[in-house]
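Consider the following input, taken from an annotated entry for Tryptophan 2,3-dioxygenase (Flavobacterium jejuense).
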Amino acid sequence: MEVTPELQHQLKKIDEKYKSINQNTETHLEGLLWSKPITYWDYIQTDALLNLQIQRTTLPDEMVFIMYHQVNELLFKMILWEIEQLAHTEKPTTDYFTDKLGRISRYFDMLTTSFTIMTDGMEPEQYLKFRNTLTPASGFQSAQYRLIEFATTDLINLIDYRFRATIDRNTPYGHAFDHLYWQAAGKDYKTGEKTFLLQEFERKYKKVFLDFMEEYNTINLWRKYKQLPQEDQNNEVLVQAMRHLDKTINITWVMGHFNAAKKYIESVPGNHEATGGSDWKKYMLPKYQKRIFFPELWTKEEIENWGENI
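Applying the prediction step yields:
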């Protein structure tokens, strides 16, 4: 190999890189001699991914159910990855904000258009059998989805609408947490006691949630939007992109989930509770909670009729 001026320049850059972290360049170069060539399956960890689907029953469609939810969680991670970068950029440019918003929207568009896998991709008879083995687990317990909510909007917009007038930005996070909209779905509607579903969810994630709520209180997606120049905040294309994301997450995605649940849960007479025991209709339907991430971007009439025309 000829040691060209270009190669010498690259070696100098490599040497500077390792010296900057107090490392010996020769040691790292020698390490290249023993490193293995990378393959697709090693890089993507294909074998590990394909061994994460563990059925609890012998029913074939349970595998569809498992894989679909795992795909959702991977997309949730992609969404959080983009939001994290934007949120921790001190003064994002409008172009940077718009680019990240576009990525987040595309991930959620993919989620919403994939619901036919659930609604049309399983036999109701199989679902109604294997779902009993999943009790009391529930999609309610997707921690990443809760983190997306905390990282997207001001906390007040996630509070149960019955308590919003009593909570503001000075309310302790623990008190606000106990009045989040999804708390109602995790409590016995007769006694008000927390269900096992909610108790286990909080046991595993409450501290993570409280820390995350505090971290994103002033750097969530809405707060970053408000940092943009006023002219850009009023840009019609950007406003429509914000509205699209809000509607996609809080109406289209939620209704896709609702319609899938409704098809299977109500396909036979009898008890129509969700696996976690929640009042799933009032928990999921947008018209009840009026969960809106960016209320300032919607008219009073649109808010009053939120989710009614879907």
